[in-house]
Amino acid sequence: MGATGKIALNISVVLLALIAGFYQIYLKHVLAITGVYPARIIEPLANTDCKTVPELQACEKIILHQPTGVIYLACSTPSSRAHWIPAANQLNATGASNKDYVATYDPATSHITRLATPDFNNGRGLSLHGMDVVPSESNPKELFIYLVNHRTPIGDKPAQEVGANSVIEVFKAQLGGASMEHVKTVSDPIIVTPNDVLGSADGKSFYFTNDHAARVGLSRHLEILGHKGSSIGYCHIDEGCKYALDKTHSSNGITSAPNGTIYVSDSIFGGVTALERQTDNTLVVAESISTERVVDGISFDANGQLWGATTPQGLTAWKHVANPKLLSPSSVHRISINTGVNAFYGEKYKVEKTFEDDGTLISGITTAAYDSQRKKLFLHGIASPQLAVCNI
Ligand SMILES: *[C@@H]1O[C@H](CO)[C@@H](O)[C@H](O)[C@H]1NC(C)=O
Ligand SMILES: *[C@@H]1O[C@H](CO)[C@@H](O)[C@H](O)[C@H]1NC(C)=O
To answer: Where are the transmembrane segments (predicted)?
Structure first.
């Protein structure tokens, strides 16, 4: 073999080693978590004692109002989602809906109310995604509603080139009311690709996740290789926005525990990270809890247990958001603090699957909220044709 041949061989060996290493470190893990390889079999669980509500469609987020048992939902239409989900690189502005809405649903009466927005007229409407609903600290009958609004861009350049012009909207509503009053549109260079939001009880500040570092471009596709392109931002209405924690991996859902610890989910590698709030409102990683599947929306129940909307089959979920008529399986996991004897030996958290469905009942789940008082689990998805309410 000549010198060139030897070099070529060496390069091939190095390349093969790199590919094998890459497979071991990243790909194997991603394929398993997303249920692609080994292919995950759906094992239905707790999906029989359920009710469906087809009047409420494509609701990416549910927030439970614990005292009344009423839920708030951030909804759209499955047909518009097929064209407009900036988080999933679906950027056909012509097909976007700007008439998305917040609704309430009372499981006791089955009553649905679409909250009107009489004083909100910026000409660009609402294209919803993540949401938070927080009772005011000064008056529990008043609620602050925080919404991720993926506005279609204005100007000459198409959305495919510049991405969505995303902002966070703050509204105020009365408990049991039928409308919401606009407080502020927060637009900031830090609000790049907002996914979910965690609001404060004074209506003045919020944390949010950016699911990517850029609105368009190649870097968005590197998360699957372990690239840490997402982040968590903090905004105060009077003081502006800043990064609370930069360079996180695929941050998606955000919520807080009753004691104020903030939790963020990872929508590619799975798992949930606990973050402690510092006096300057930045966040520091306290611990990481791994899950065997991809996690989207997360929420705490009144018993202090964390519920995560999980995806059994990642590839099917991708196909579903582009074509909502294709059903995608859904599951839910509950993360609880292990108080048993083995807690002492390091098993601090117990992660249990509490729900699974092949997609017929709830397709492409992105949010799960549990009413531990009334034993009801509420489920919805960004392009799902219906809300599901299960007794479990
Ligand atoms: C964009 O959306 C419009 C309106 O729904 C639709 O007619 C058009 O075919 C879509 N374009 C693409 C490239 O999907
Ligand atoms: C806050 O609550 C969470 C969940 O209940 C717990 O894991 C965490 O240790 C608590 N943090 C502090 C600082 O007490």
So the answer is: 7-26
Look up residue 285 and give its two tokens: 């990683």
Same domain? For 48 and 142 the reply is yes
Specify whether 123 is located in the same domain as 216: yes
Rounded CA gap, 174 and 72, in Å?
A: 13
Identity of the residue numbered 75: C
Instruction: Give yes or no: residues 137 and 93 share one domain.
Output: yes
Task: Answer whether residue 7 shows pLDDT above 80.
Answer: no
Is-above-0.85 flag for pTM? yes
Backbone φ and ψ of 24, nearest 5° = -60, -45
Same domain flag for 15 and 116:
no
Alpha helices by DSSP H, 91-156: none
Give the list of residues 6+ apart from residue 339 with CB closer than 8 angstroms, or none: none
- CA-to-CA distance for 332 and 234, rounded, in angstroms? 28
Q: What are the residues whose beta carbons fall under 8 Å from the beta carbon of 211, sequence distance 6 or more?
A: 87, 193, 194, 195, 230, 250, 251, 252, 267
Whether residue 48 sits in one domain with residue 19:
no
Q: Are residues 1 and 126 in the same domain?
A: no
Task: Report the distance separating Cα 76 and Cα 321, nearest Å.
Answer: 13
Give residue-wise pLDDT tens across range 184-233. Answer: 999 999 999 999 999 999 999 999 999 999 999 999 999 988 899 999 99
Written as one letter, the residue type at 388 is A
| Alpha carbon nearest to ligand 2 atom 14, residue | 259
**Residues, the chain, total?**
392
**158: domain CATH number?**
2.120.10.30
Residues 25 and 56 in one domain: no
The finding on whether 77 has its CB within 6 A of some atom of ligand 1 is no
- What's the gap in Å between 226 CA and the centre of ligand 2? 28
Q: Where are the alpha helices (DSSP H) in the chain?
A: 3-22, 28-33, 78-81, 159-162, 314-322
